[in-house]
Amino acid sequence: MKRPAQAAPAACPCGSGLAYAQCCGPLHAGERRAQSAEALMRSRYSAFVQRDAAYLLASWHPSTRPAELDLSSDATRWLGLKIIACEAGGTTDVHGRVEFVARGKLGGKAFRLHERSRFERIEGVWYYLDGEIEDA
Which domains does the chain have, with CATH numbers? Predict the structure, then answer.
């Protein structure tokens, strides 16, 4: 007897090649923490795709975190993430930088967001500090 085909696990929006449940999902659920600045960057991109404002706020550095973040009316459709470069941001570092390009569509128009983000690790937890947006 032939078994029904199982659906493939949903790919993580961050582009790691892993399933969401093995990649950014556990970070969003609070089951584990990002082990590097790049992992936090990827999880934050996935949180924007998922419109998970709570995770974005929780992973934002306390000194630069906005009081609130409302993504409910955000019409952006995120299409992909490409990591350009990482500087430091490992398990023994305190600071890290991640340069990335995120592609999306807003109002039917395609756009690219090119940013150099800074991250800081406080008591073993990585946080997004801020970023410089590059001109397209």
Answer: 20-134 (3.10.450.50)
